Fold this sequence. Notes:
six-stranded mixed beta sheet, 2-enoyl-CoA Hydratase, Chain A, domain 1, alpha/beta
Amino acid sequence: MSGQVTLSIDGAIATITNDNADKHNAFDDAMDAQLFAVLGELKERTDIRAVVWRGEGKSFSSGRDVGALGGGDVDLTHHELMSRGHRGIQQIWEIEAPIIAAIQGWAIGASFQRALLCDIRICTPDARFMLPEVGHGVIPDTGGMGVLYEMCGHGLVSDMVLTGRRLSAEEALGHGVVSRIVDADQLDEVAHEMAAKIAAAPAVTVKLARRVIGHLARPEIRSSMEDELFYQTFNNKSDDYAEARAARAEDRDPNFKGS
Length: 259
């Protein structure tokens, strides 16, 4: 059975839940569609003052469900699929309520990048963050490189992207990727306490403060995502990408030529 993304409302606070716990909340196409529908609903609501985004089970999300790859909409080109994904996740910026990502266990690939687009991230001591895409022959393409560059600078983002290194919770806190580390049994409670504090503040003040922060960061992130869209589409047609797939299928070392 496929996982799902659910939305629950309690007063002025909305909770988005990644629910595919058996696969560490890995996302397939159906879950993507559900997430984008949830974000679309939230951007139309004026009664929601804060949002918590969480995951069931041991992880926030281990990224893409590799077992579901190739089962998507074959009528769309790679460029069209990526454009749809960018439009879907950029709805985060159109929601008037701040979003708090509550992260435990793995936050990998696109799911980590989606959390980076949120307003606030908190995590448990066992949280681990990775961008392993380059090792699979593609580039991160959900805005995460741009956000990490702003947060941490050239060195860390290059290390994470080019080597696929794993970032621990303590390292993430030190680099400002998360703002708090909380015990696992308190993660949901703390996230909702934070949401309640935001929801209790004057709505216009919260909106204006977020707008200032957004104006500082958003143009560069949009530009970065436009680059990702172009370069990932090119990469998808490259000889090296074809060679990576062939070598994997044939269980041999690849012979990359840089083209």
